[in-house]
């Protein structure tokens, strides 16, 4: 039932959508080029023109050939739109930034400990993030959900206000003219380099977060507790001895 309602809603919204501009592309009119900067084999769609930081032509599934702008823009912006590729980069940055926070959240408790809890009320000592969901108070979960919703709402507001002039990924922190407590003042070249560094960190963090989630779900413990014993192998030392002589 919910799926049917969502489909009808999407169909209704598309009926009132303005005419699509030439900034959007479809899978039917995209040309594919053999070989990419990312891989010596495979092909790359011409929608990846290298205009965005970190664009090395890697899109084997063809996400960049789909009309994401025509789907998203009627929900937020009237008139000038972000392009399909800009919408994809917006999503990539959003997920990558969350993944970076998630990686820190996975590692921090095992390395530095957890917050003290309230006796008989809250237990913050659980290191496994999946188990921690059932040990912390519900109010803490609601705070996290509320905080995420507020940030997402602010992002949507900025997308609607800026339209096609939007700096992709701008959340009002650190960008030119935005909240900048560290007084960062990059040249255009330095800013482009920071954008490249960020997207690389985002991609790496998404892979790392996926690995940490699978590890925690499979092992039932935090990654630090599982990783530390890997550097100790007493059963092997008992058989073959240590590489370096002891006592020197």
Automatic annotation (TrEMBL):
Keywords: Chlorophyll, Chloroplast, Chromophore, Light-harvesting polypeptide, Photosynthesis, Plastid, Signal. Chlorophyll a binds at residues 64, 92, 95, 198, 203, 215. It is found in: Plastid, Chloroplast. The keyword Chloroplast applies. It holds the Pfam family Chloroa_b-bind. Residues 1-15 form the signal peptide. GO terms for cellular component: chloroplast; light-harvesting complex; membrane. Gene3D superfamilies: Chlorophyll a/b binding protein domain. One of its GO terms (biological process) is photosynthesis, light harvesting. One of its GO terms (molecular function) is chlorophyll binding. Chlorophyll b binds at residues 97, 161. The keyword Protein transport does not apply. Belongs to the fucoxanthin chlorophyll protein family. The light-harvesting complex (LHC) functions as a light receptor, it captures and delivers excitation energy to photosystems with which it is closely associated. Energy is transferred from the carotenoid and chlorophyll C (or B) to chlorophyll A and the photosynthetic reaction centers where it is used to synthesize ATP and reducing power. This is Plastid light harvesting protein. It comes from Thalassiosira oceanica.
């Amino acid at each position: 039932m919910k799926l049917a309602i969502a489909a009808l809603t999407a169909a209704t919204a598309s009926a009132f959508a303005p005419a699509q501009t030439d900034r959007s592309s479809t899978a039917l009119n995209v040309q594919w080029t053999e070989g990419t900067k990312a891989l010596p084999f495979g092909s790359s769609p011409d929608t990846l023109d290298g205009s965005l930081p970190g664009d090395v032509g890697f899109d084997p599934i063809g996400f960049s050939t789909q009309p994401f702008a025509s789907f998203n823009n009627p929900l937020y912006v009237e008139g000038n739109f972000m392009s399909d590729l800009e919408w994809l980069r917006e999503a990539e940055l959003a997920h990558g930034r969350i993944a970076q926070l998630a990686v820190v959240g996975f590692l921090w408790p095992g390395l530095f400990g957890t917050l003290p809890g309230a006796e008989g009320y809250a237990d913050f000592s659980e290191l496994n993030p999946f188990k921690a969901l059932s040990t912390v108070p519900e109010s803490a979960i609601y705070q996290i959900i509320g905080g995420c919703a507020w940030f997402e709402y602010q992002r949507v507001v900025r997308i609607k206000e800026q339209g096609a002039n939007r700096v992709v990924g701008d959340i009002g922190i650190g960008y030119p003219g935005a909240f900048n407590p560290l007084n960062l003042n990059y040249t255009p070249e330095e800013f482009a380099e920071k954008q490249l560094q960020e997207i690389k960190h985002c991609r790496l963090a998404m892979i790392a977060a996926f690995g940490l989630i699978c590890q925690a779900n499979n092992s039932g413990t935090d990654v630090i507790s599982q990783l530390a014993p890997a550097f100790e192998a007493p059963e092997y030392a008992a058989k073959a001895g240590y590489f370096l002589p002891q006592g020197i």
